[in-house]
Structure formats: C-alpha cells, structure tokens
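Risk register update: the risk of archive-format incompatibility is retired. Evidence:
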Amino acid sequence: MKFISVGAGSLVSSERIVSAAAPDSAPLKRLVQDAKEEGSAIDLCQGKKCRSVLILDNGMVVLSSFGMDVIEKKLSEEQS
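Archived output:
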C-alpha cells in the first residue's frame, strides 16, 4: 500500500483515492457540507484555506490545504 502526504503531517492511501478536485464548484461545496454533517469528512486544513477535496472509495471526503497541482504531482509520481 502506498501513501501520499496530503498536509498536516497526514497520509492517505493513494490506492483508495477515487477522485480529487478543487472545492470551488457548487456541487463540491454541497458534497463537503453534506460530508461534514454526516461525519464522513476529514478536515486536514488546520485553519488554512481548503484547496483540494479527495474522495475515497469508502465514501470519506478528505479536505486538504494542498493545491490540486501538488496533489496531482504526488499521485503521478507515486504511479510511476
């Protein structure tokens, strides 16, 4: 199992990531709000602005202060 750093000294299994997106669109904002209400959101921003949202295969939503460019680079490095 391989992990990538997603901020706040935290790691996420790259194999469990289904999708990664910027949190700017209305559908993603609703998804994040619903996940927070259901208790299925993990906020790793530590008070910083949320710059990416990771959706895991088990339905958990991970909020990261790392930008999409950083997440994309980490995922592509991990796959090669």
